[in-house]
Amino acid sequence: SNEVEGEVLTFKFYDSDADEVVDLVESIDWELNMVVGDLIDPFMLHTPSDEVTIDIQLQTGWNWFSFNVSNSDMSLNNVLSSVDGNMDYIKSLDAYAEYIDSFGWFGTLGLINNAEMYKATALSTDVIEFTGLPVEPNDIPIGLNVGWNWIGYTPQNSLDINVALSSIDDAAGY
Predict the structure, then answer these.
(1) In which element (H, E) is residue 74 found?
(2) Are 79 and 56 in contact (CB under 8 A)?
(3) Which residues pair with 15 in a beta bridge?
(4) In degrees rounded to 5, what are phi and psi of residue 114?
(5) Which residue, 9, 145, 158, 159, could crosslink 164 as a Cys pair with Cβ 3.0–4.6 Å?
(6) What values do phi and psi take at 92, rounded to 5?
(7) What angle (nearest 5°) sits at the alpha carbon of residue 20, between those of residues 19 and 23?
(8) Are 145 and 84 contacting, i.e. CB atoms less than 8 angstroms apart?
């Protein structure tokens, strides 16, 4: 870049088989002398074909859900844009937000975290449609606190509950 800051760096990939240039999913907010990725933790680039779209069915009233995909904008206004106006309240175990017409989401909950579960009210049946890259469960640490925990489900396929929770051994009470 020829700017010190304030630009967005985007990436493209030349697919020689199709003889076309493909926009990659990732972008970076440019900062002077920035370093992104290293030998141990490289910055991975993905084509749009790596992305998946999830559909979360909502019923009228309270709904429980989590997200097992992620993209560069995990703000409520982006993640829940497909249900604008039909969902009016969302909460995590310790934060909340309320939908305000002509403004968007307002409250202490601003970003969706793949490690967490959420509870929200829908005014009528609807579908949350959200596109992103599948999360790698091993890359999403989920801490457990004493008492109740609202944990997200990060795998891309269904697992037996004993397999899904095998890493916590006897730490969870019932």
Answers:
(1) none
(2) no
(3) 20
(4) -60, -20
(5) 159
(6) -105, -170
(7) 155
(8) no
Mapped onto helix, strand or coil, the DSSP state of residue 29 is strand
The pTM assigned to this predicted structure is: 0.72
State the DSSP H helix or E strand holding residue 133, giving kind and residue range, or none if neither: strand 126-134
Measured in degrees and rounded to the nearest 5, phi and psi for residue 81 equal -60, -25
Q: Over the Cα atoms of the chain, what is R_g?
A: 19
- Rounded Cα–Cα distance for residues 26 and 47 (Å): 9
For residue 102 the two structure tokens come to 């002509």
What the block records as the tokens of 70 is: 């992620």
SS3 109: coil
